[in-house]
Design goal:
With about 230 residues, the protein is an all-alpha fold. The relative contact order is 0.14.
Length: about 230
Amino acid sequence: MTEPTDARPADTTRGPRGRRPSARRGPARAVAAVLGDLRAVDGALYAAVAATPTPTLDRALRRLSHAADHSKVSLGIAAALALSGARARRAALVGAGAVAVASATTNVLGKRLVHRARPDRESARVTVDRYVPMPASASFPSGHTAAAVAFATAVGVVLPVAAVPLGALASAVGYSRVHTGVHYPGDVAAGAVVGIASAAAALAAAAAAPVPGVRSVYAPDTAPPALVGPG
């Protein structure tokens, strides 16, 4: 006679030593799911830009993207500002400092911490008329965008009249990196955040420790006349 067997199904929800999986895995799965959805949206936006024919814009955006290599556009504007009045020179100094902070943050920290592969623009069928050299570095975040936004933000604070045109230029640089197929939109958005933070750091440093012989970045061009008492 065989002994009766236990007909109850095995509890497959238990892990080692009969313990149930930790409830802490729930938030981790939720975060992973959200990140997956964001990557899907990011890829869809990239594909939409690639699939939209814009022959009139292709050449101009390709040239702008190339001109923004090594922050040549921003540093060229800084050089022109340095030849202007005192306030413009202060704006140029803090703008160049913001570019340096943004470049270091993206290349030393961001790209080394997040090893995101560059987009496959051949598979996305990005037209060759948009092509610029594909960088060998990681894709996240966009260094071009970070530097352009950092410069525009820092200079715009010191020299408000330049805020709108430089902001428009930085936006165009960021979009050009998606248009030419070398970055996902998410890379550009992250680069913009890095740029704003870099500008804030440069402005704070300039205000706390102004360059000898140069007034505070927030100082007006002309100091108010001293009040003279009776006498």
